[in-house]
């Protein structure tokens, strides 16, 4: 067994280009999900809010599952938060996408909570694959 000093002294390697592209794609999908959720939750209040938050949670968990790490949930969550912040910024003309209603605040706070939950959730210790036999 190698000692701890040799394991920590290894230089960092650049991630593969495909992984970088996947993270950038998930970042963009997060921003698009924020835009769609902002329009949906305001247009069809109780059902639209639940549908928008479910879509955001699905994207966060799907990103984590697709990339096989918790970092896969962070990329769409970051895109979602950037998109929401850009949508809440008011313009000098007074136009903005989010209203001052309770549904908007539930969408903002609920989406942030889902992002944190999905980024910190673990997949457990169950092995994954076709050749795995569980329970015998």
**Number of helical stretches of at least 4 residues:** 5
Q: How much is the radius of gyration in Å? A: 19 Å
From the spread of the alpha carbons, the general shape counts as globular
Q: Biggest β-sheet: count, sense, barrel? A: none
Distance between the termini: 31 Å
The helix/strand class is mainly alpha
Give a count of the beta strands, DSSP E runs of length 2 or more: 0
Question: Segments where pLDDT lies below 50 for 5+ residues?
Answer: none
Hey, roughly how much beta strand do the residues contain?
under 5%
Helix content, binned percent = 55-70%
Mean pLDDT: 81
What string gives the helices and strands in order?
Answer: HHHHH
Entry summary:
With 136 residues, this protein is an all-alpha fold. Helices cover 68% and strands 0% of the residues. The chain has a domain at 26-120.
How would you describe what is shown here?
The chain has a domain at 26-120. It contains 5 helices and no strands. The protein has helices at residues 4-8, 17-43, 45-67, 71-88, 102-120. It has 136 residues and is mainly alpha-helical. The mean pLDDT is 81. Helix 3 (45-67) packs antiparallel against helix 4, helix 3 (45-67) runs parallel beside helix 5 (102-120) and helix 4 runs antiparallel to helix 5 (102-120). It is globular. It comes from Streptomyces phaeoluteigriseus. InterPro entries: DUF6113. It holds the Pfam family DUF6113. Keywords: Membrane, Transmembrane, Transmembrane helix. The chain crosses the membrane at residues 20-40, 47-67, 73-90, 102-124.
């Amino acid at each position: 067994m190698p000692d701890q000093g040799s394991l920590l002294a290894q230089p960092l390697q650049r991630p593969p280009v495909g992984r970088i592209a996947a993270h950038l794609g998930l970042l963009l999908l997060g921003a698009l999900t924020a835009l769609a959720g902002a329009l949906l939750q305001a247009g069809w209040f109780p059902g639209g809010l639940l549908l928008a938050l479910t879509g955001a949670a699905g994207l966060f968990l799907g990103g984590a599952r697709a990339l096989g790490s918790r970092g896969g949930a962070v990329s769409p969550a970051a895109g979602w938060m950037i998109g929401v912040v850009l949508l809440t910024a008011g313009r000098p003309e007074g136009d903005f996408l989010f209203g001052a209603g309770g549904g908007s605040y539930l969408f903002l706070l609920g989406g942030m909570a889902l992002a944190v939950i999905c980024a910190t959730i673990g997949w457990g210790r169950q092995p994954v694959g076709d050749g795995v036999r569980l329970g015998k």
